[in-house]
Amino acid sequence: MKVLVGVSLLLLCFVSRVKAVTVESCPLATGSLLRTEVEKTVTLTCMTDEGIDPSNQKELQWFRNGARVNLTEENRLYQSSLCVQPVTKEDNGVVFTCQLKGDATVNSSIEFDVQYPPDLNDTKEVFVEETSDVVLSCDVRANPPVTVTWKKDGEVLDLISGSYKTTNNGITALLLITTAKRDVHQGTYICEVNSSVYGIMGRTFIIMVEDKVLRFPLGPTIAGVVVVLCTIVFAIISRRNKIIKCIKPN
User: Fold this and answer.
1) pTM for this structure?
2) Distance of CA 201 to the CA centre of its chain
3) How far apart are CA 152 and CA 138, in angstroms?
4) pLDDT higher than 50, residue 10
5) Where are the beta strands (DSSP E) in 162-216?
């Protein structure tokens, strides 16, 4: 029994000497995950386990995805703060870590979950010649990810018919129309996205299919005109020389 008590006291003494740093955030994080939005401001505060104690000044370091953040000298000792303003899309998934300079194993991290909608809600007019191809593009980059639906004249687009092809890599959604025909493809198209946070939004495309314009190859046409002009000039010069010879006095 005495041995067990001695071990317990030893463990208690050991735990009491364990160093630690704590990161607090505004807004509050859930565990180590902080949810925020673009254009917002986030404040992170890192403290040692002793708190603000001038007699025990431990130097702190901040890292953003492993890259050290430069701090002023007065913002390094026993308490250190960071202000992220404004929050951007590029901050999504970023991990901020605070650690003791003298012992990197004593650290605490917080990860950003930045929510933002896709950049849509606009209208574009698209003019395409008959039998030509056209590509409609939507920026669907968002957090959380969105679902994409293509519509034509208010109805869900039938991708099987009408020479349509779609792609979506999570950043850009594309609708490819091959061999455009006025009676089939002319109309109003909508790239409709649905977000669990921001609701339904989209981009509208008004497609006008125009008559195909006959085009002549410019290079060969110019070359042909030059040849004809040169031939005419040489003929005139040759004719002029013959005329001069006929009227020359003996």
Assistant:
1) 0.72
2) 18
3) 15
4) no
5) 164-168, 172-177, 187-195, 199-210
